Amino acid sequence: MASNNVKYTTSAKLLYHVVAFMEGYNLDATAACMCAFETSLGLSASRLSIIYAVEKMSLLGIGAVWGVLMDMAGRKCNHVCTLGMLLCGMGCILLGCTSSYPMILFCRFLHGGGLSCVTPVYSKIIEEDTTLNKKKSLYQGLANGVHCLGKVVSLFLVTRFATRNLMGQYGWRLCYCLVGYLWLIMALPVYCKMTKTETSNTASSTGGTQQQGKPYYTKATFWVMGLVRYASEVPFVILGFMVMYFQYSGLSNKMAGIVVAVVQVGAVAGSSSGGYLVDACHNKWKKEKGYGRLTFAMGVLFIRLLCIMLILWWPIHDGALRWYHWAELFVFGVTLFVASAVDRPIVTDVSKGKESLALSIYRVIGGVTSSATLSPVIGLLAEKKFGYVKTTEMMENMSPETRMGNVNALRMSLISVGTVLTVVNMICYIPVFFTYEGDNDNKNDAKNQ
């Protein structure tokens, strides 16, 4: 049976890494600007949380629309990516120019919706390109590593300049406008250069490039991976609370920011090396069954479980982190590659021909539900179970009893949620050992390699 060899140009591969970097930068810019929004716009904590929620829901919900468009676009995925970049750029520029709360919400919706096109685009490129697809865990991991690098740069630059006066305006306004114009400028090379070529391959194919029978939404593996996605969000959720825990423990805002940076640097390192190791294990151990990929993921999750316990189990004294705390935070960051290098390739393996839509739905299933439940659960546990006390006092003015009580409440709630859901994540991989082979659309190619 004839099949096509798909090759994306070198320019296309470079561009999707640039866009992944910009996505990471933009995603963390919102969190980095929260204090600046509060002081410059006079927004309350509840309004700030609504802003964050609107962008998050737009990011996840509209991703499914981009998934449909990507699967329908065929050779014109550059058109879809360009449209998303234009929306994101316009959203950024408008955000930098407005002070109206309703307009801010609209711009956040526009910004999140445009930004949500990035993951479906580079996932589709990796899946379609004949060369990249052979090492999809490696290339998904590399894209995620570049994404995390964007987060690190955002953390340092935006945090540094957000509250400064630059040319008569708050720095965050200038940052958003400049990044918005960069999105608009980069849309042109993406439109012109993110292209592919197809050559006919007359060699017999056993069906690895054809969609196999059942649609992805009827497959057990796809829905189990949705639950995996939910549980895999826990390290990203607890990281925000972990910063708060470190601040209560006596760390300055600057040092708390460095904590996040160390985790993200670990994520950059883990995404590149982890993707390579996942591919090596997958190719050497029952590839058609996925045993290598799944076993490696469970081992990494066990290391993550140990890191959560070690970081949080013993209180921090004197407001100072020791060398082993930094090592634990770095290794914790290294383990974050599992979602990109293991979970995404499994989802694309069971959704041949509809990879972008399947990945978008998978992100919605796990992302929206985790956003709506995990943070409130951590907050309720801290307050109702472990005695967290709400206060409007500054850290330095807080009584030692209140501060240490809140430290312990945050610590215990984070340990509870972090360890339980990491174990749940590991358990969810077990049924995939049995369902993956039957649901894998590439199983015939795997057997022949």
From TrEMBL:
Alphabetically ordered keywords of this record: Cell membrane, Membrane, Transmembrane, Transmembrane helix
Residue intervals passing through the bilayer: 50-69, 81-104, 170-191, 222-246, 258-278, 290-316, 323-341, 413-434
Subcellular location: Cell membrane
InterPro entries in UniProt: MFS, MFS_dom, MFS_Efflux_Transporters, MFS_trans_sf
Descriptive protein name: Multiplied multi-transmembrane transporter-like protein
Originating species: Babesia gibsoni
Protein topology in the membrane: Multi-pass membrane protein
Any one of the GO CC terms: plasma membrane
Residue ranges constituting the Major facilitator superfamily (MFS) profile domain according to the UniProt record: 12-440
Top-level taxon of the source organism: Eukaryota
Main location as per UniProt: membrane
KW Transmembrane helix (keyword) present: yes
Any GO MF annotation of the entry: transmembrane transporter activity
